[in-house]
Each structure stands twice: as structure tokens, then as C-alpha cells.
């Protein structure tokens, strides 16, 4: 019984991930190379689920120190004060720049967490062979990928905040150890999104022989 639309693998065709050409594979075991661009063809990205899980877990671990450790050290008249991301948000809010506080909160706290939750959800539903809301899950994956490209926005937001604070005289700013973990979260989730194979979403309900995740 067919429970989802026909996939390319089911039709005996393989899609080139580089140029998008749908072609006839050389054989079922070894799909060979793309006739148009010469890229090695793959039915599915090898070990996609395991690799993505590993990266998501690593990013989730880094997310904790990224939020707990200070990201900003401000020195005024010899005394240094360290601020975490949330500390920065609270500082911006209490000093009246609530739009900036909201931007930092969304870009630095909510977006990375949202990406981790979304990727975990995609991985779990693929592993459980869910056949529901495939279209929505594909859309969610595209969102995670697009947001990933804009993730460096966080760095701009933080730089912008620093520049604002720097306007005060007799003050100097240094990055705190939290920044390194924060950058790790951004980079790891970006790689995780690229190792996840969205074709797996459509594989549930398809005969086993076409699956080799
Ligand atoms: Zn190609």
C-alpha cells in the first residue's frame, strides 16, 4: 500500500545534489556519477541521521556555557564587570532600549534554541518513520537552512551592542569566554542542517529496499 507520493528512489532515479539533475543510476548499489556535472551520486547522504544527531548534541552542549558564561566584559575605571547574554538583555531592557533587548533575545537565545528543537524534531520523526505532515516538515527544514545562513546576524547584533556601549567614555570592552561557545553553537547547527538529508522525510512508507540511511 502506498502511503506517500512516489519518490525518485522508488522510480529508480537518483537526484544530483550539486546540479539537481535527475538521472538514471549506473546500478542500484553504486549510483555512479552525475552525467551533467560529474558529482558522485548518492541515493541518500551517508550516515545522515547519525551525523546530524552528533552535531545537534554537540551544539546543545555548547548552548549551555554560551548562555551561562559571560560574553561581554566591560571595564570602567579599573573595575571589570562580566555580562552573560541574558544579563545583556536585562541591561538593555532596564536602560530603556527594549527594541535592542528584544533583537538580542531573539537572535542570540531563541533562534539557536529553535534550530536545535526543529532539527531534533525532524530527526525523531524521520527515525520513527512518521508519514504525517511531510510537507510541513520539509518547510521547517528549509526554514532552519535559511535561518542558518543568517545566523551570523547574531555576531552583528552583539557587535552593534558593544559599539553602543563603547560610546560611554573611560570604558573598554572585551569578549568573554561565552562567545567561543556561542560561535560553536552557530557553526555546529549550520553544519547539522547541511548533513541532514531532507529526502529522508519522504522515505517513510516507502519500501525498505530504497532506503539506505
Ligand atoms: Zn550534477
The first-to-last residue Cα distance is 22 Å
The gyration radius over C-alpha positions equals: 22 Å
Strand content: 5-15%
Order of helices and strands: EEHEEHHHHEH
Q: What is the 3D shape?
A: elongated
Q: Report the sheet with the most strands, covering strand number, pairing sense and barrel closure.
A: 3 strands, antiparallel
pLDDT < 50 runs, ≥5 residues: none
> Tally of extended strands?
5
Describe the strand arrangement of the main beta sheet, using strand numbers: 4-3-5
Structural class label: mainly alpha
Q: Say which molecules are bound, naming each kind only once.
A: zinc ion
| Structure annotation, total helices | 6
Average pLDDT rating = 84
Q: How helical, in percent, are the residues?
A: 40-55%
Written description of the protein model:
The protein is mainly α and 213 residues long. The protein contains 6 helices and 5 strands. It has helices at residues 48-68, 85-94, 98-127, 134-149, 153-166, 178-195; strands spanning 14-15, 22-23, 72-76, 79-83, 171-175. The protein has a 3-stranded antiparallel beta sheet with strand order 4-3-5. Strands 1-2 form a two-stranded antiparallel sheet. A hairpin with a 2-residue loop joins β3 and β4. α1 runs antiparallel to α6. The protein is elongated. The mean pLDDT is 84.
Please write out the topology.
Elements: E1 14-15, E2 22-23, H1 48-68, E3 72-76, E4 79-83, H2 85-94, H3 98-127, H4 134-149, H5 153-166, E5 171-175, H6 178-195
Antiparallel strand pairs: 1-2, 3-4, 3-5
Question: Tags for this entry?
Answer:
213 residues; mainly alpha; three-stranded antiparallel sheet; 6 helices
Amino acid at each position: 500500500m502506498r502511503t506517500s507520493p512516489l519518490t525518485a528512489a522508488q522510480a529508480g532515479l537518483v537526484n544530483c545534489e550539486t546540479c539537481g539533475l535527475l538521472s538514471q543510476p549506473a546500478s542500484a548499489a553504486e549510483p555512479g556519477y552525475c552525467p551533467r556535472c560529474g558529482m558522485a551520486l548518492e541515493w541518500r547522504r551517508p550516515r545522515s541521521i547519525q551525523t546530524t544527531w552528533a552535531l545537534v548534541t554537540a551544539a546543545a552542549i555548547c548552548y549551555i556555557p554560551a548562555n551561562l558564561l559571560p560574553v561581554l566584559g566591560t571595564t570602567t575605571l579599573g573595575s571589570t564587570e562580566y555580562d552573560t547574554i541574558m544579563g545583556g538583555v536585562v541591561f538593555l531592557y532596564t536602560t530603556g532600549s527594549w527594541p535592542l533587548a528584544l533583537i538580542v533575545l531573539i537572535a542570540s537565545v531563541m533562534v539557536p534554541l529553535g534550530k536545535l528543537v526543529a532539527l531534533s524534531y525532524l530527526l525523531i520523526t524521520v527515525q520513527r518513520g512518521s508519514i504525517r505532515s511531510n510537507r510541513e516538515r520539509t518547510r521547517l527544514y528549509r526554514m532552519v537552512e535559511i535561518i542558518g545562513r543568517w545566523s551570523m546576524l547574531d555576531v552583528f547584533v552583539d557587535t552593534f551592542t558593544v559599539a553602543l556601549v563603547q560610546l560611554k567614555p573611560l570604558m573598554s570592552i572585551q569578549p568573554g569566554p561565552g562567545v567561543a561557545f556561542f560561535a560553536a553553537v552557530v557553526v555546529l547547527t549550520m553544519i547539522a542542517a547541511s548533513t541532514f538529508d531532507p529526502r529522508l522525510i519522504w522515505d517513510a512508507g516507502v519500501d525498505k529496499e530504497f532506503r539506505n540511511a
